[in-house]
Amino acid sequence: MPVSRRQCANAIRALAIDAIEKAHSGHPGAPLGMADMAEALWRHGFRHNPADPAWFNRDRFVLSNGHASMLLYSLLHLTGYALSAEDLAQFRQWGSLTPGHPEYGHTPGVDITTGPLGSGIASAVGMALAERLLATRFNRPGHTIVDHRTYVFLGDGCLMEGLSHEACSLAGVWKLGKLIALYDSNGISIDGKVTGWFTEDVAARFKAYGWQVIGPVDGHDCDALDQAIAAARGDEDRPSLIICNTHIGFGSGLEDSEKSHGAPLGAEMAAAAKAALGWEAEPFVIPEDIAKAWDAREEGARLEQTWQDALVAYRQAYPELWEEFTRRLDGTLPAQTDQILADFVKKAQEAQEKVATRVASKNVLSVLVPALPELIGGSADLSGSVGTKTASSTILDPAVYEGNYICYGVREFGMGCIMNGLAVHGGFIPYAGTFMVFSDYAKHAIRLASLMHLRVIWVLTHDSYAVGEDGPTHQPIEHLNMLRSLPNCDLWRPCDSEECAAAWQAALGRHNPTCLSLSRQGLPFVAKPAQADIARGGYVVRDCDGTPDIILLGTGSEVSLCLGAADVLAAAGTRVRVVSMPCCTVFDAQDADYREAVLPSAVRTRLAVEASWPDYWRRYVGLDGDVLGIDHFGASAPGSVLAGEFGFTVDAVVARARALLA
Amino acid sequence: MPVSRRQCANAIRALAIDAIEKAHSGHPGAPLGMADMAEALWRHGFRHNPADPAWFNRDRFVLSNGHASMLLYSLLHLTGYALSAEDLAQFRQWGSLTPGHPEYGHTPGVDITTGPLGSGIASAVGMALAERLLATRFNRPGHTIVDHRTYVFLGDGCLMEGLSHEACSLAGVWKLGKLIALYDSNGISIDGKVTGWFTEDVAARFKAYGWQVIGPVDGHDCDALDQAIAAARGDEDRPSLIICNTHIGFGSGLEDSEKSHGAPLGAEMAAAAKAALGWEAEPFVIPEDIAKAWDAREEGARLEQTWQDALVAYRQAYPELWEEFTRRLDGTLPAQTDQILADFVKKAQEAQEKVATRVASKNVLSVLVPALPELIGGSADLSGSVGTKTASSTILDPAVYEGNYICYGVREFGMGCIMNGLAVHGGFIPYAGTFMVFSDYAKHAIRLASLMHLRVIWVLTHDSYAVGEDGPTHQPIEHLNMLRSLPNCDLWRPCDSEECAAAWQAALGRHNPTCLSLSRQGLPFVAKPAQADIARGGYVVRDCDGTPDIILLGTGSEVSLCLGAADVLAAAGTRVRVVSMPCCTVFDAQDADYREAVLPSAVRTRLAVEASWPDYWRRYVGLDGDVLGIDHFGASAPGSVLAGEFGFTVDAVVARARALLA
User: Fold this and answer.
1) Which residue stretches of A139-161 are H helix?
2) In this complex, which of B381, B486, B631 lies closest to A478 when CB atoms are compared?
3) Model pTM score
4) For residues B538 and B587, is the Cβ–Cβ distance under 8 A?
5) Which of A212, A525, B210, B558 has its CA 20 to 30 A from that of B547?
């Protein structure tokens, strides 16, 4: 007798119970509740190859309610990924492959890191968009090499988050028909029955976004689920939301209770739950017939082989496209990238133009965008101001999925997560811009990019009080400090076109996120000594004879102030060194000799000048130095007036330096 | 002949054009587009008193699309607030009353700071909720002293932001019938026609939230607007959204163009626009008949006088309620607050209990909540974990608007802005909790609270790697640094119950936001010397004889590590001082003598220990000291295992201290 589908689903439930009990930690409610949904999807038409988790044309799976991690780990184990029963038994332990929430790059088969609610569904929109754009770019008649779906499981929490609004509204605009979301509607969140705080009509809301809404269906009825998923797959013109009515903690003594959400059932209830499910096997053991029913390796190998064969044919038919395709999937840059940037720098050095670094960034992009088809730009409704849209940028047209530029609308967080989805999917280097002060809205997207080591580039302009008239709501003060405190994330604050090109070069060359901090206002071109090596993050931009009496450190718009102050001080006989420090983290990563050469430890008279929260700079100037920063909110007035009021003038720098020297 | 309503609206348009032209900066499109909406509302049933902008029972006005500031300033000027034509002529200039975006506490009549899109409508939800809760609490038959509406103007941008989803969904749950939003639907955002990125059916979306949706109406047809506003006022069971179809830049040569959004029209077009509007007066001059038609002072005085009379009658009828009412509007605490906290501390000192500081915080709240009716708590769906719900907390019941606790659902940013609305309305001290790592989602709400000097208290728990098994997505690393870089915001990271009580006392006693950083894990009670003054933010918790060889600085969960290390070091003959620094900003604000007494400048061998991004502490330890922090993401494993792996053990502190002393 063949195993029943419920028995297959119960394998997930049993493994989830076992692992959570063993860990004395975890979230049983969601895996128990969603097991039938998972069985319906993963055993019926989900296209993947357990032997090759990185197979490009696999369907993507996003567990937006990431606390249900044991559901995903169970699926990976059952279908044949390199995730053993021993790995499951190490759930939530140091060094294991099965951390508390799914982690991209850590566990084979995990397509994206989730846990922070809403971020999964939002990034899935980016993944689904990536698929459509690549399909347009590379598929040719008779040669369909890009063709996969993005499936999402999500819960009530994801739908409460504003992030889901931003991304799902865009998914409707973009008509992402190959995005299929299964909503685990169990009516429970951590504080209890959601009727007290979540009464909206989700179906009507998603219809308003332009989605196909299917259901509600019984999320424990495999036939109903099959039909729903078929209907979703059948409509490639609209993204689909399948509303699945489920019971959290299905089969356990805490069914339908928030108490099943975030803590182990306990030995007794765990045993009872397994008995109620008719599950008799030992912990972490899957009966052979059920194991066989789940095993997706043979079918997966077949699917990938078919695709590999198609790719061979594609290579023969379209060798140039094949080359671009494989290069972009590898994430390597076009060979001419460095030369393009070198040419740009040469011209910038010749022109010595006074220019806002947001414009300098646009100028850099203007030479990069035509040469790098993997660049996909955008802005949260500030394209003109932030300089992300170049003459070679064409706005995404969802009718045909052409374009290399996305108007995200006023949706910073959604933009950030969609960029993460584009990056994690592969084939793209996303960049997008907003005012730096609104990086707040997107902070957690930048965090997730940092955690996942994604090459995502944030163009954050209007980076100080010098925003001027728009006032304190639009003037960043604390943001440089915030973004510099993010592991793996580099923040570049270039002082001119040349440093701006170096920043872009660094950003393109690393597999981690980069934030560019760019000025609204024009900044003079800075003449640099021949040996200046911007790529090292910090360098001596103006030196003196002998040991400096004082070192001035500046970034971005304050470098020219430091240089002006150095002139004044030097004229009065002070030996001044000026260090430009566009990227502190890159400078910190240099060898000790280089750092000592730039900032000799014997010279403790150091003044850092940056129009931002001053604390950060104490790591360079210590207790003996000083920082000219801003420890208060800005104000509404012309930027030049604020410069005087807030002390960002050559005179003010000279005065602070003299006070330090006295 | 009486002046026409269009002429009245054109007064707004003319003033907006004049001020923006004079400033050479600003946003003409929205004031020109919304002038008729503003006329319909402000001249017809908007209850306020220009002579007393702080009149409690006024209707509130929230300009959620805050870039339309000149609309609001014009209204304030025209209706008779202390905002002169000269003030308007100083639009966007240093020290003027008319900054680029409306600033609460700066300009008479501005009810809330706006500009960051979505935040206005979200905070308006909090303002409208405050009104309903106070009405229930204080109104008595025949004595209606709380009865006002909250009106909001908002644009496409606000509706794209996820924040609007979170807050408006809750407004539907809460049936805030006295919240009326007028949507300036002009089909244009900064990047152009919104059809490329904003195609959702807004009416259907808001109906899905449970709102009354009115329109679309012609936003330039005063009769249609009158009817719509009347219908909105007529339904007190549901919040209302009036969709007003308007033309951005109405009457100007840039009508219906995004080019009218964010830059002056220019002299020529400005003159043409005024001519087209039939406006002939000199710049900043309002013809007498139009001025008279706008003047709301007499009616405003009458409205407030009626209320003041009612309040006198109320005082006689309900003296105790009157006392609480006036006290809460003043924002003063109950007289017994300090004693309650002193009693708590005494018991904590006796009990010396090992307790997680999130539990300590709950214990403090458990004595405060019954005594402070102005406390309104809540959580973003983590009530049990973050300890914000006490035995005296009753969940908000929108059927009767009773309760002192809000289940916000998984909506951190919405929660933050709603708290800002509750605080800015008056009568409440909002506090609410989430995991510290998700403060990211709400960062900008905390920023706005800081900018507005609002007494809002954030309970941020699970404040380090010690979260343990949930892994890096749930372990804050950079957040302490982020929140400490926010002007006006204090972050307290208490080490035990006693410090926790001090933190709450400080938070309640200031008119600015406070973040509490609290542990998931149990922390030992710390014995303190008699002279320890926690309220000073930092103090010597363990000293040595003579000048210390080394000072250990710790906060929160790391204080006990420092004390343990001090024991080991002292046993080996090292003179060790330990400083507990629960609130750096409060410590920094102490007099120099006190700071010197705690951190003698002669002692440069300093080791800071905090399980967070280390840079911040360089301001205390300089270049000669060291920081034991975390400059990488966390991992999923039991917290005690991570403590060993990440070096947060007594042994590790001792080793770092010895390395520094060597």
Assistant:
1) 156-160
2) B486
3) 0.98
4) yes
5) B558
Whether residue B20 contacts residue B27, with contact meaning beta carbons closer than 8 Å, is answered with yes
Extract the tokens encoding B35.
């002038």
- Tens digit of pLDDT for each residue in B619-661? 999 999 999 999 999 999 999 999 999 999 999 999 999 999 9
Instruction: Find tokens 């306990």 and name the residue.
Output: A266
One DSSP character per residue, A167-219 reads HHHHHHHTT-TTEEEEEEE-SEETTEEGGGT--S-HHHHHHHTT-EEEEEEET
- Chain B residues touching residue A168 (CB < 8 angstroms): none
Strands A355-356 and A522-523: antiparallel
Query: Quick check: is A412 catalytic?
Result: yes
Establish whether A156 is an annotated binding residue.
Answer: yes
Would you call B162 and A414 a contact, using CB atoms and an 8 Å cutoff?
yes
3-class DSSP string for B91-143: CCCCCCCCCCCCCCCCCCCCCCCCCCCCHHHHHHHHHHHHHHHHHHHHCECCE
- Which residues of chain B does A200 touch, with a Cβ-Cβ cutoff of 8 Å? 169, 172-173, 208-210
pLDDT at A1 over 80: no
CA pair distance B158, A113, nearest whole angstrom: 29
d(CA B74, CA B78): 6
Helix or strand or coil: residue A625? coil
Nearest-by-Cβ selection for A485 from B160, B601, B615 = B615
Q: At B228, is the pLDDT very low, low, confident or very high (cuts 50, 70, 90)?
A: very high
Quote the tokens at residue B432: 């609410």
Q: Do B415 and B434 form a contact (C-beta atoms < 8 A)?
A: yes
Q: In the structure encoding, which two tokens stand for residue B269, read together? A: 């077009």
Residue that has been written with the tokens 């500046």 in this structure: A554
Task: Please enumerate in sequence order all residues whose Cβ is within 8 A of that of B592, keeping only pairs 6 or more positions apart, or say none.
Answer: none
Closest residue in chain B to residue A66, using alpha carbons only? B473
**Contact across the interface for B161 and A166, Cβ inside 8 Å:** yes
Q: Given an 8 Å threshold on Cβ–Cβ distance, is A162 in contact with B157?
A: no
Q: Which of B414, B374, B368, B411 is nearest to B388 (CA)?
A: B368
Nearest chain B residue to A171 by CA: give it.
B197
Residues in chain A: 662
Structure tokens at A363: 């100028």
Q: Which residue type, as a one-letter code, is found at position A211?
A: W
Q: Which residue has the tokens 């870039």?
A: B67
Q: Which one of A104, A163, A166, A470 would you mutate to disrupt binding with B, by most B Cβ within 10 Å of its Cβ? A: A470
Q: Provide the 3-class DSSP secondary structure of residue B73.
A: helix
Judged on CB neighbours under 10 Å (0-12, 13-18, 19+), B250 is buried
Q: Is A373 annotated as a binding residue?
A: no
The minimal CB distance from B200 to the residues A161, A209, A472 is found for A209
Q: What is the Cα Rg of chain A in Å? A: 28
Dihedral-angle region of residue A165 (phi above 0 means left; psi in -120 to 50 means alpha; beta otherwise): alpha
Secondary structure in 3-state letters for B291-331: HHHHCCHHHHHHHHHHHHHHHHHHHHHCHHHHHHHHHHHHC
| pLDDT tens column, B154-208 | 999 999 999 999 999 999 999 999 999 999 999 999 999 999 999 999 999 999 9
C-alpha A271 chain-centroid distance: 40
* Pairwise CA distance, residues A457 & A430, whole Å: 6
Q: Does A148 show up as a binding residue in the annotation?
A: no
Residue A137 annotated as part of some ligand binding site? no
CA distances from B653 to A574, B539, B640, B643 (A): 42, 20, 15, 12
- Among B386, B413, B427, CA closest to B132: B427
- Rounded to the nearest angstrom, the minimum Cα separation between A633 and chain B is 6
8 A C-beta contact, residue B182 and residue B154: yes
Contact between A207 and B204 using a beta-carbon 8 Å cutoff: yes
